[in-house]
Amino acid sequence: MRRAPAGGVVSYAKVLCVGLVGVTGHLVEVEADLAAGLPAVVISGLPDTALHEARDRVRAAVVNSGQRWPNRRITLNLLPADLPKFGSAFDLAIAAALLGGSGELPLLPLEHVVVLGELGLDGAVRPVRGVLPMVAAAARAGVGKVIVPAGNAAEAAVVPGVRVRAVDTLHRLVSFIRDGSPLIEPGSDGPPPTRGGPDLAEVAGQGLGRRALEVAAAGGHHLALVGPPGAGKTMLAERLPSILPELDDEAALEVTALHSIAGLLPPGGRLLRRPPFQAPHHTATVPSLVGGGSGLARPGAISLAHRGVLFLDEAPEFSRGALEALRQPLEHGRVRLARSRGGAEYPARTQLVLAANPCPCARPAGDAYCECPPQARRRYLSRLSGPLLDRIDVQVRLPPVRAAELMEATVESEASATVAERVAVARQAAAARWAVLGHRVNAEIPGPYLRRPPWRLPAPDTAELRARLDSGSLSARGFDRIIRLAWTIADLDGRDRPDREDVREAIQLRTGDAT
User: What sequence ranges are listed for the domain AAA+ ATPase (predicted)?
Assistant: First the structure.
């Protein structure tokens, strides 16, 4: 879009772009107005530092691409003006609007087209983070065409209903606008990635741990594993993604968008179909776990593990502040980060897995050779606060691995593929049952629904559970989580409703005294 004053010289142009706030994209109009006066470039519309620096990048890119830089007063405005703008993805749109406003380019080919990309000083168009949610936002706004950096073309092409074209230089974009030269087509998908990685068949023994892992996978429950070194805590946790179902289209788009914002997408631009796995070091800070940073708050490990697994190995060694910061996201499935220039919200519906030694000395043989006094043992595990553990559905203590279990043939252990089949059937049963409520797995069901007809269990089946609640040894939150566990156990065993034995096993898995 361009405007010519009475003298016939074009002085105004507009190009569409997209800005991100959190994982949500917003359509942005990049306006350029060129007027007589002292040569200068003014950018308005709540730009951040990277955008303020765009004036120098764009000037060098325009000149080095063989175009004439207008020696006039240039005003660039990013609408809506009250929406904070972050990053360098506006560079290419700014250059196109500026050249259109100066009369160098007829911008009719860019009508109703979103333009994204960062410019190098030599005129190269470089990839940017967050292209997937940007293109998805353009599609929601009714824009059917986008131009993106060549390095982001495959990523952008996964959004349905949008025609994607790519550029590698500003010169290519100018040639397209001026002469109709073709742009770069997104490459065709290569072969789908093979499903490899750790397998449950490699875990020796630990029948209790394997059962807890299967129940957690089938119901989407959080899991805590306590045991001596070498008991298999880390091996079990690392194999949880191998028994989870692949992500459907909606979940895959969510997960891929988050990794796009973080700049962690693998080459090829495919949708991420496997549940993600995040295992931060125990020195991780609060922002690295839940998200943060200056300017635009970036997603943390709990959001990068959305629809997958967040594993905290040596959990008592994490700072108390970092662990406590997980409580609200675990409860609500979202992270809300408030900043002075605006807030950001990221999804965080993940399965948390905690692993801990029973005491500071962590003797491999367990309690038999432990030299820690009872007070030291209690103090060590008390680093995992009661409110945090109350949100962990499955809490089991793993015994040391025996020689007979370690030396037996691994072919006798069930492989991940076999367990994954049972998990998939159980999840399908839960999804069909709770579809009317809009939930997928048992762990997501609000407690009140499970305590009233038609889902309330008979009083004789919950007698032990109610007694624990009345005695104070179990919280109301724990009561609901045990009921959810019982439903998951019933789904795994192919029953329509839990019975007394299912509730009893759920109590054992929750309290950690299963045998």
Answer: 219-402
In contact, 106 and 177? CB cutoff 8 Å: yes
Domain limits of the chain? 12-179, 200-410
Q: What are 356-380's pLDDT values in tens digits? A: 998 887 776 555 667 788 888 888 8
CB 96, CB 177: distance < 8 Å: yes
Predicted TM-score (pTM) of the model is 0.88
Q: What tens digit of pLDDT does each residue of 233-242 get?
A: 999 999 999 9
Give the tokens for residue 168.
Answer: 């590698």
For 76, list phi and psi in degrees, rounded to 5: -110, 130
Query: For residues 15 and 93, is the Cβ–Cβ distance under 8 A?
Result: yes
429 residue type, one letter = A
Tell me if residue 134 falls in helix, strand or coil. Answer: helix
Alpha carbon distance 515, 503 (integer Å): 15
Cα 84 to Cα 46: distance, rounded to the nearest angstrom? 5
Q: How far apart are the first and last CA of the chain?
A: 72
CATH number given to 12-179: 3.30.230.10
In this structure, are residues 30 and 85 in contact, taking their beta carbons and an 8 Å threshold?
no
Dig out the tokens for 410 from the structure: 């691994």
Cα(235)–Cα(197) distance, rounded to whole angstroms? 12
Structure tokens at 158: 């996964």
Alpha helices in 80-143 (DSSP H): 91-101, 131-140
Q: Which residues pair with 225 in a beta bridge?
A: 355, 396
- Kindly state which CATH superfamily the domain 200-410 is placed in: P-loop containing nucleotide triphosphate hydrolases (3.40.50.300)
Q: State whether residue 357 is helix, strand or coil.
A: coil
CA atoms within 13 A on the CB side of 442: 31
